[in-house]
Amino acid sequence: MKLISAIALDRPREVSTRFGPRLVIDCLNRDTNEKFPIWRGVDDDYSRKYVIKNSPLTVGVDSKGKFNLIEDPALVSLGQPLPESPIPVKS
Asked: Alpha carbon of 31 to those of 8, 35, 71, 81: distances in Å?
């Protein structure tokens, strides 16, 4: 799998297909300026929460040329409490 750097052109949009509702993220390859879509399931909370206009994305391209969004674990942990430190802080 090859990784490319991309930018989301807008928030994900919901579309109706013959396979049912899907989310589409319109992207721009930062190296080649090629526009391409990433198709996700309609129940994809990650895309709905964290993909916004002009946000940087990491995209994987498989051997068939299919684009897949690589989720950033740092974004998922936003807003969650920090883990308790195992080492006490000296005062």
From this structure: 14, 11, 20, 36
Structure tokens at 81: 């409490």
- By three-state DSSP, how is residue 42 classified? coil
The pair phi, psi for residue 74, each rounded to 5°, is -65, -35
Place of tokens 């005062």: 91
Q: How far apart are the first and last CA of the chain?
A: 49
pLDDT per residue rounded down to tens, the chain (91 residues): 899 999 999 999 999 999 999 999 999 999 999 999 999 999 999 999 889 999 999 999 999 999 999 988 776 655 555 556 566 666 6
- Judge contact between 58 and 68, C-beta under 8 A: no
Please name every residue paired with 40 in a beta bridge, in sequence order, or none if there are none: 23
